[in-house]
Design a protein that fits this description.
The chain is built from twelve helices and 28 strands. The strands form five sheets. It has a nine-stranded mixed β-sheet with strand order 2-1-12-11-13-14-15-16-17, with helices on both faces. A nine-stranded mixed β-sheet has the order 8-7-6-5-3-4-9-10-20, sandwiched between helices. The protein is 27% helix and 28% strand. It is of the alpha/beta class.
């Protein structure tokens, strides 16, 4: 049981009422029964372009033996094409509605009807071949349930575009199994839990914390393909949900929906609420507790750490406004930004992470990404460690900000707009926004209109990277504007 999908199946949990073992078995069956798929994946990686759904686990299992690029369903066709080409992808697991974003000629596996059947389309314009997945003989899982996981590629997630282009971070089965197990411990997750998964499984926080960890514990997972605050509150009230995982914007939106119901939820089954992806305002934590009677516990992590490194462990009192303590088995150190020497308590420095969850590296271009030195991942984030061992966030070294829990890299957005004919210079900055953490402000000089700018963004940038506001200036001097 050294593969992530097998560990998820072995727990005995379910996704939307379907046994995880049946979903994983369908994935393995797909790989065994489709010769065109096997040929397309020979010497190549796979990719998964799917919403949060049971089919995601089918695709993860069918990627057995190779890394799978987890593509955000919000990605534009040009962003998708970059990731597939950069990672050397041979086939993509997707659904009918998202398949149109794939480059022409890409082998695609349509999973709308999985785990019953799949449609494999290997030639552009072809009708494809239906593969029956429902007549398999089940999945017999044997082996050591405590095996650490295979030290081979499991997932590739594109991130860390500090230099202007997203890099493919490589996570192994060992990385992700370790973080899922740590989440089970720190969250006190058992087979009696019921997790509501509202985050994209293409986002490691969503996959590991709201998907794989509950399944490893034998719990139930209910998915939402697209987050809706009113619908999420309804599921919490009707579905005996005990575990909710989200980013600050999600909890803020749900508070708005709760407010329209009278401002406070009646008694629910909610036990643990986990927030990450962006800095959490303690005021939001206070409001959530007042409305639900359940603590909103903040964690900290990043893709390159699989992702969670710090968390307000449920076995301890929640320290609102803090990042919590290291996950079980994870080492976290505050280090000097120049010498990398470890600093003492209450000193502000770079947050560095070590342990089984540190990623393998990038597909390519690693010199412009986050660095691992002497086993320590240098995160580009600032923090401090208090005398009681609790960590606090203190800002960023890297040029980045968050919007609705997603990372926005100004250099990436600027690179896209510099390619727009008529643009002389461009500058992207963050504007604080209570609902989404930050809005994206674009300041641009040249001979283009705002309509041209927005059309360019719509075709090339995921929605969360697109400018909220556009400032058009006259043509810039030849040297342009220099970054600080």
């Amino acid at each position: 049981m050294d593969l992530l999908s097998l560990r998820a199946a072995a727990g005995g949990g379910s996704v939307d009422g379907i046994d995880a073992a049946a979903l994983v078995s369908a994935g393995f069956t797909l790989l065994q029964r489709s010769a065109p798929l096997v040929r397309a994946l020979a010497g190549k990686r796979a990719a998964i372009l799917l919403p949060t759904s049971p089919q995601f686990l089918v695709a993860l299992a069918a990627s057995d033996g190779r890394g799978a690029v987890l593509v955000n369903p919000l990605a534009t066709p040009s962003e998708v094409a970059h990731q597939l080409e950069d990672a050397g992808v041979g086939a993509v697991f997707t659904n009918a509605s998202l398949a149109s974003r794939l480059p022409a000629g890409t082998t695609r596996v349509i999973l709308d009807e999985a785990p019953a059947r799949a449609l494999v389309v290997s030639t552009a314009g072809a009708a494809g071949t239906v593969v029956d997945l429902g007549s398999h003989f089940g999945l017999s899982i044997e082996g050591d349930a405590e095996a650490p996981g295979r030290d081979e590629e499991c997932a590739i997630v594109y991130t860390s575009a500090m230099a202007g282009t997203a890099l493919g971070a490589i996570l192994t089965h060992r990385n992700l199994i370790a973080n899922a197990r740590q989440t089970v411990q720190a969250g006190g997750i058992t087979r009696d839990d019921h997790a509501l998964a509202v985050l994209p499984f293409a986002h490691l926080f969503g996959l590991t914390v709201s998907g794989i960890a509950p399944l490893i514990a034998g719990a139930r997972v209910t998915t939402m393909e697209r987050f809706n605050p009113v619908g999420a509150v309804d599921v919490v009230l009707r579905g005996q949900v005990t575990m909710l995982v989200g980013v600050p914007a999600i909890f803020g939106a749900m508070l708005g929906a709760i407010g329209r119901r009278g401002g406070r939820l009646p008694d629910t089954s909610l036990r643990v609420c986990i927030c990450g992806g962006a800095v959490l305002d303690p005021v939001l934590q206070d409001r959530w507790f007042e409305a639900t009677g359940v603590e909103l516990r903040q964690g900290y992590g990043l893709t390159e750490a699989s992702p969670v490194a710090l968390f307000n462990d449920v076995r301890h009192a929640n320290r609102r406004g803090t990042l919590g303590v290291p996950m079980p088995g994870v080492r976290v150190s505050i280090r000097d930004t120049e010498s990398s020497e470890e600093l003492g308590q209450d000193a502000v420095g770079e947050i560095c992470v070590a342990g089984d969850t540190v990623f393998r590296g990038y597909v390519r271009g690693g010199e412009s990404g986050l660095q691992v030195r002497d086993g320590w991942l240098h995160t580009g984030d600032l923090g401090l460690r208090r005398a009681d061992g609790v960590f606090e966030f203190r800002g960023l070294l890297k040029r980045m900000f968050t919007r609705n829990g997603f990372n926005v890299y100004p250099a990436e957005v600027e690179r896209v707009f510099r390619a727009l004919p008529g643009v002389a210079d461009v500058r992207v900055s963050a504007v604080p926004d209570a609902a989404s953490e930050h809005a994206v402000h674009l300041s641009l000089s040249g001979t283009v209109s705002e309509a041209e700018v927005r059309a360019w963004a719509d075709a090339r940038l995921s929605p969360y990277k697109r400018p909220s506001s556009v400032e058009l200036r006259g043509r810039a001097p030849a040297r342009g504007i220099l970054d600080p």
